[in-house]
Amino acid sequence: MRSVRPILWILALFFLFADHSPGVAAEETVPPRKPQRIVSLTLGTDEILFSLVDPKRIAAVTYLAADPGISHVAEAAKGVPNKIRANMEQVVALQPDLVFVATYTSMDVVKQLTEARLPVVKLELFSSIEGIKQNIRTVGRVVGESRRAEEIVAEMDRRLDRIAARAAAAPRKPRVLFYTPTGVVAGKETTFDEIAALIGARNQAAEVGLVGHQKLSVERLIQLDPEIVIVSDWNPEEPDFYEKLMAHPELGHLSAVRNRRVYAIPEKHLSTVSHYIVDGIEQMTRIIHPEWFDSAALGKEGARSR
């Protein structure tokens, strides 16, 4: 499992902090009205499917679904006998009546699946909260569970609206920055920027005019002096990144470091492209505005600060 994590870490940053761009919800061929042998080749659809259909209708999920560090459905995935990669032979052997893929699935595999006349749905919207909602609706429609999909989206909206209402009335918006081991930050036109605005924070990378994902020097980081720094709790290429950041001799004067407001968020909350993204948003809200919520108002799992 660890051999794939560097690749997944890069994909995780793409998902949550992806540049916003227009696109369609999905490309698809027509599946049966209520497919009974569904194969999911993306972790996002793994997570969505377990909230939509009886697990007996799921013939296979990705091998990533079983990893509790990055999957919200690791326990549920234990009940699915097949955990596979995007491998044509494995998929065909399962005789699926519906296969979910994504824009980042191997083009060769997608082409082969289509040529084999298997019903394929390719999801394409991952760069915004609205895109994720649209994916949930698409999955719900093609598996014959549109009503349940709308219920999931409505629950997302209810939780997000509660946060947005508080944020709109916030007298002050703290300066926040997402920071990676390579010094890359998320600026304008990224999902992180969208989330920062939603939860009542100021994304400093966006405020200084950075667009998309750009590398920030240590000197520039010191000049920005963010009040809060968000990192992932899972950095396969530099597993002790959090500790190194906190002990960095040049960063000791940062407000975030000095005030112990550098937070490591569970990777599964950051990288998800399913409805579970709301869990991550709620975690970041608690970090940014802990005074808003009592112990029962938002889930407390996750954020680590020392």
From TrEMBL:
PROSITE patterns: FE_B12_PBP (PS50983). GO terms for biological process: cellular response to iron ion. Residues 1-25 form the signal peptide. Residues 37-292 form the Fe/B12 periplasmic-binding domain. InterPro entries: ABC_Transporter_SBP, ABC_transptr_periplasmic_BD. Keywords: Signal. It holds the Pfam family Peripla_BP_2. Coiled coil: none annotated. This is ABC transporter substrate-binding protein. It comes from Candidatus Manganitrophus noduliformans.
